[in-house]
Fold this protein.
Amino acid sequence: MEQSRLDLTLKINEIFYSIQGESRFVGWPTVFVRTSGCHLRCTYCDTTYAYYEGGKKSVREILQEIEKHKTPYVCLTGGEPLLQKNLNALTTELCDRGFQVSIETSGDLNCLDLDPRAFKVVDVKTPDSGEPEAFCRDNLDLPSETTEFKFVICSPGDLEWAEAFCQENQLFERFNVLYSPSFGKIEPRWLAEQLLNKKSRARLQMQLHKYIWSPDQRGV
Ligand code: SF4
């Protein structure tokens, strides 16, 4: 008998209900589904607990947890969610049920085959991330209406690098580009002043959740 999409499993680290801290959905009450495992090791990673911990859950079980919270916003994050071979099954099931889904990814894996209804928040890893080679250039072909590119800026050198990358690849012309100050490494005000002085076309993005919750809290 053919396996139902609802029976497919993903390795899940945690599911929690909180305020979205980033992207165009910032501020919305959102259910976060954090998958287990990441093949990268960014210097600023704040989810190292998701590298290995977690257990298998079926799409059905994940949906049951999400639907308890009665919000239309779901964020699939990690870890690296694209490492889950059944990520699209979950995404498609959520989109079919009317959820607004966003997927946060390291940018190192090809996103072109993900359900086009899901919004993609794609990192571009800077030199000081420790993973400067981690970018799949195919992702530059994603549709602009459903894609944002995000740079975590750790230093003045990272900012110069990000500006050059955006200009070389016409990112500002095609996409919403987010620059986020690496929390505790550079001051948000310094980055704000730099964006103004450089007349950059990137948007300053604060990680709102880090100003609301203590490091061991996720939400309510
Ligand atoms: S891609 Fe994300 S989860 Fe993976 S190491 Fe970097 S910050 Fe951590």
